[in-house]
Amino acid sequence: MGTITEKSLTGNFLVAMPGMDDERFAESVVYICSHGKEGSMGFVINKKLKDFSFSDLAVKIPMHTPANLETMFLYQGGPLEKIRGFVLHSAEYSKPGTFRIDDKVAISSSLDVLTDIAYGQGPKNNLIALGYSGWEPMQLETELIYNKWLIVPANADLLFNTPDELKWQRAMDESGVDLTRFIASTGHA
């Protein structure tokens, strides 16, 4: 079995441990889009923006869209570049600029994907995030050593179809870790 540094975490979830000391990530589930020697990038998938909607975004861009976009939500993808938009989506949709992460999930950041979603011609499943989460080389590995995160294999159902308020607990359940036996701090010899 390889070490974390030998195996990419791309396409997995990071699940914040109960003792997460960074409140921006408390009870977060992060989908990792890239992980390698240059660092890591992902998106928080369970925290909707409360004060900014897809219709607000459509006005700001500006883009021509159908009248009712109120049921479409935006997510707080992370603390970096909060005004930059990304769309995590099912991999059947592809346009120039789409990056396929695996056979089920892709990412796009063009205006085309937002317009297609607004008109019902976009990907079957999608999650629109403003901002992203990023880690410098070896930063994420260090956080894993200090029990900040659990690694859980990602699945499209949890990513796209699970209610946000249930994603963290479901990811924890899928990890198989019994939190009643977990010690939040690591020992030092």
Describe the structure.
The chain is an alpha+beta fold and 189 residues long. 21% of the residues lie in helices and 29% in strands. The protein is built from 5 helices and 9 strands. Strands 1, 2, 3, 4, 5, 6, 7, 8 and 9 form a 9-stranded mixed sheet that branches. The longest helix is centred in the last third of the chain and has 12 residues, at 164-175. The chain is globular. The protein starts with 11 loop residues before the first strand and ends in a 14-residue tail after the last helix. Mean pLDDT is 84; it is low at 1-6.
Number of helices: 5
As residue ranges, the low-confidence spans are 1-6
N-to-C span: 25 Å
* Pattern of helices and strands: EEEHEEEEHEHEHH
Strand content: 25-35%
Helix content: 10-25%
What is the approximate shape? globular
Mean pLDDT: 84
Structural class per helix/strand content? alpha+beta
Sheet with most strands: 9 strands, mixed
